[in-house]
């Protein structure tokens, strides 16, 4: 096991960047689900794109 801090914000293909990418993707997914549950519309309809 390496002693790298996986919570450090690094650019490029590093373990820290992959952790942050996953965390932000989870926040985006939960936000999209919340918009659909609250508004009763899909995200694109909510923003007026479709």
From TrEMBL:
Protein name per Swiss-Prot or TrEMBL: Chlorophyll A-B binding protein
Entry keyword Transmembrane: yes
Keywords per UniProt: Membrane, Transmembrane, Transmembrane helix
The keyword Transmembrane is assigned to this record: yes
Membrane-traversing stretches: 24-47
UniProt source species: Pseudanabaena cinerea FACHB-1277
């Amino acid at each position: 096991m390496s002693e790298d801090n996986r919570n450090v914000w690094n650019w490029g293909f590093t373990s820290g960047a992959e952790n942050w990418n996953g965390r932000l993707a989870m926040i985006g997914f939960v936000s999209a689900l919340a918009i659909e549950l609250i508004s009763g519309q899909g995200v694109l309809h909510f923003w007026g794109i479709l």
